[in-house]
Write a structure and sequence with these properties.
It is a single chain. By secondary structure, the chain is an alpha/beta fold. The chain has two domains: 7-32 and 267-367, Alpha-Beta Complex (Aspartate Aminotransferase, domain 1), CATH 3.90.1150.10; 49-263, 3-Layer(aba) Sandwich (Aspartate Aminotransferase, domain 2). Helix content is 40%, strand content 17%. The chain has helices spanning 7-15, 33-36, 39-45, 59-66, 83-94, 110-117, 137-143, 166-179, 233-243, 252-262, 264-290, 317-328, 352-370; strands at 21-22, 77-80, 100-105, 121-128, 134-135, 148-154, 182-186, 209-214, 227-230, 296-298, 306-311, 330-331, 333-334, 343-347. Strands 2-9-8-7-6-3-4-5 form an eight-stranded mixed beta sheet, with helices on both faces. Helix 4 (59-66) packs parallel to helix 10 (252-262), helix 5 packs across helix 9 and helix 11 (264-290) packs parallel to helix 13. The protein is globular, with a radius of gyration of 20 Å. The N and C termini lie far apart (45 Å).
């Protein structure tokens, strides 16, 4: 099977640990084990036996996840090695060649590439900047047919940081119900809202819903590599065997660390830390964008350590980012990796000094381009 080239991840995988300043990351500066664990837990860590873990996630971890989704059960949950594996398992298990899928864009393009590689007929449905990064609901009505198998969204959105309003949520559910489609709601930025108002999950709003989430973005724990799928028990049971062909199980250490992170008291502390970083750093990026002599136009993000800004230069976005990599040792994400050229995605969840240094390097290149 031929796979579609995943442009953003290929660029990030190649350069994010090579450049001096990586501002492509969409999460906050990661927690350390020292910050996450108590002294007692550090001692326990040293004595954990490194065997195989329960392949769908330990009952203890699935119980912690269950608390976040009223009406779910531990059997409604499949724990995966990151939310990317969750996405893969969902697409692999739910799609047959020729299936029709509506895909909300701009978006993280993993599922887009997987869908096309597995032979689905994918219909893009774009958020509109002029609508405050909300979708055109009349367009959705035209896209949905009786053949629609899936409607896929990311909420809060990557790369815009926007949250779907209540009208959009209602329209998506009604469209799915009208055609019998399933909704896949990627909610990995839930908990990273700058205003502290948790984005409502799609779980429980409609009987044909899968929710994907994980610890990488809002929790600042990407190295733990824990994600999960929430869905009806019988559907989760049918997806679990697909896991036998991929990573088989989460790592023993990751499962244990995730249980600690998701304990209610710890979870609240972690998300409070995330919001503090976002609210401290966003004014730094916002002021920088506004200081660039009208070069950028943007809408402030509501969630996630990401901002999606349009720039007013003729240069292609990938060409611009390649110049940043090779001439300034800085990485951000080009808009055409989301099929939207002349935009850039800035990650602003890094430590303050690091963020400012990276932005100054970008300023330097932009001055050179404009003065060329």
């Amino acid at each position: 099977m031929k796979i579609e080239y995943f442009k953003m991840e290929r660029m990030q995988s190649t350069w994010e640990n090579v450049v001096e300043h990586n501002l492509s990351e969409s999460g906050v500066h990661p927690l350390s084990l020292n910050e996450l664990l108590t002294e007692e837990e550090k001692e326990i860590l040293l004595h954990i036996q490194l065997g195989y873990s329960q392949t769908n996630g330990t009952p203890e971890l699935r119980e912690e996840i269950r608390r976040l989704y009223p009406g779910s059960s531990p059997d409604s949950i499949l724990v995966t090695s990151g939310s990317s594996e969750a996405n893969f398992l969902l697409i692999w298990s739910q799609i047959e060649p020729g299936d029709e899928v509506i895909f909300l864009m701009p978006n993280y393009m993993q599922m887009w590439g997987l869908l096309r590689s597995f032979g689905a007929r994918v219909k893009p449905w774009f958020l509109r900047e002029e609508l405050g990064w909300q979708p055109d609901l009349d367009e959705l009505k035209k896209l949905v047919t009786p053949k629609t198998r899936l409607i896929i969204i990311t909420n809060p959105n990557n790369p815009t940081g926007a949250r779907l309003n209540q009208e959009a949520r209602k329209a998506i559910i009604e469209a799915a119900a009208g055609s019998g489609a399933w909704i896949i709601s990627d909610e990995v930025y839930q908990g990273a809202e700058r205003d502290g108002e948790l984005t409502p999950t799609f779980w429980g709003s409609y009987e044909r819903v899968f929710v994907v989430n994980g610890l990488s973005k809002a929790y600042g724990l990407p190295g733990v590599r824990i994600g999960w799928i929430v869905g009806p028990e019988e559907k989760i049971a049918s997806i679990w065997p697909y896991h036998d062909y991929t990573t088989i199980s989460p790592s023993t250490l990751s499962d244990w660390l995730a249980r600690i992170a998701l304990r209610p008291s710890n979870r609240e502390k972690i998300l409070k830390r995330t919001r503090a970083i976002l609210n401290h750093n966003w004014p730094i990026l916002e002021n920088w964008l506004r200081s660039q002599d009208g070069l950028f136009s943007f809408r402030p993000p509501e969630a996630g350590a990401i901002a999606f800004a349009r720039y007013h230069l003729e240069i292609n976005s990938t060409e611009l980012v390649n110049k940043l990599i090779h001439e300034k040792s800085v990485l951000i994400v080009p808009g055409d990796h989301f099929e939207m050229d002349h935009y850039l995605r800035f990650g602003y969840g890094a430590e303050e000094t690091y963020l400012k240094e990276g932005l100054e390097k970008i300023s330097s290149l932009l001055r050179e381009i404009r003065n060329f």
